[in-house]
Amino acid sequence: MTLPGHRTLSAAALVGVLALTSACGSDDALRAGQEPPAVPEEIACFGGSLSAAGSSAQENAMYTWVAGYQLACEDSLILYDSVGSGAGRSQFLEAAVDFAGSDAALDEQEHKRARRRCSDGSPAINIPGYVVPIAVIFDVEGVDSLNLPPETLARVFNQDITRWNDPEIAEHNPDTDLPDLRITPVTRADDSGTTENFTGYLDAAAGGAWPHDPGGTWPIEPVEAAQGNSGIAEAVEGGGGTIGYVEASHTADMSTVSVGVGGEFVDPSPESASRVVATSPEREGGHEHDHALELDHGTTEPGTYPIVLVTYEITCLRYGTEREAERVRAFLDYVLSKEGQEAASAETGSAPLPSDLRQRLHASVAEISGAG
Question: Per the database record, which ranges form the PBP domain (predicted)?
Fold first, then answer.
């Protein structure tokens, strides 16, 4: 299967976002041919700058949100550094940025550190902002699509299956002429929420074929490693016999795997990915305004694509000044708005958040306040 092309930012994404910071409200904030993203009629604007860092999975969505917000709010300056989820969480906990984007919610130890970073010992909260499939992409000449069950995927990425014409791959693709070619798995070199969600899927769905715990760093010595989602996409696209995993807006026109779910194979799409999120409960034991989700990566529900990531916008519930809090509230209200979610979906193929969830998230964002 080939997904519609979205990976127009890739390696230049951060340059484009930083260009927005000098374009502030001008048409220069848009890429060539891009329509201005929709914004709510009564958008709340702030004066000054807002900084964030983190998930490369949401870099294309963040480009869209920053463009839309800055075109509507000429006095606002938003900086987003796509350094990966782990680095973004670290920068937030060190108070180097106002908020973080992360494909993994804060864990228990990070929540403890956040109370030292946030004002008055307040908690940090995880606000889901972006829901998207993680696509498994590959580059094998003459092969446009593949069906792979989770156990086979696990053995490929664990380097137990090393040739594309392996009988286990051929069994699920009987009409495909598979070459006798070495498989080159491309995995993340950085601490990554995309990796944490992908290994979480392998752990939940592949059973003993994946003998590692979920985590943000790749658990074995890589065959080939790359930085960020765009780095993996470029390495897979530029190789031969390569396979990797990326947030779906980075697939461009590359071939993707249909994964085994129950008795069928399911393609990555906004609709199939949203079915996982719609049935996922919030993590128990958290603050009332913390909305970390327990994703069911091991689902066998028909028509459900289980390799999904949710990118959280991680913020303090209380900042040192009301001015800081106002900036975070204003921008996140746009991210969570119907217009913001639809703009990101049009650009990246993400699944817009359900309206009832958006209402709960807006209520939590409204509780973000400043000490001064």
Answer: 48-339
Is 240 one of the annotated binding-site residues?
no
Number of other CB atoms surrounding residue 77 within 10 Å: 20
The CA distance from 261 to 265, in Å, is: 6
Q: CA-CA-CA-CA torsion for 33, 39, 45, 50, nearest 10 degrees?
A: -60
Question: Does residue 235 have a known ligand-binding role?
Answer: no
Q: What is the value of pTM for the model shown?
A: 0.79
CATH class of this structure's domain 10-130+311-370: alpha beta
Question: Please, where in the chain does CATH 3.40.190.10 lie?
Answer: 10-130+311-370, 134-274
Question: Tokens representing 84?
Answer: 């990966």
Residue 193 assigned as binding residue: yes
- Ligand-binding annotation for 195, yes or no, is no
Ligand-binding annotation for 57, yes or no, is: yes
Chain center to CA of 265: 22
145: annotated binding-site residue? no
Contacts of 298 (CB under 8 A, 6+ apart): 201, 204, 205, 306
* Number of alpha carbons in the 13 Å side-chain half-sphere of residue 236: 30
Look up the CATH superfamily of 134-274: Periplasmic binding protein-like II (3.40.190.10)
- Of 323, 268, 312, give the one whose Cα is nearest residue 290: 312
In degrees and rounded to multiples of 5, residue 252 shows phi and psi of 50, -130
User: Could you read off the pLDDT of 279-301 as tens digits, one per residue?
Assistant: 788 999 888 999 999 989 999 99
pLDDT in tens, 294-329: 989 999 999 999 999 899 999 999 999 999 999 999
Is 81 marked within a binding site? no
Q: Is 194 marked as a binding-site residue? A: yes
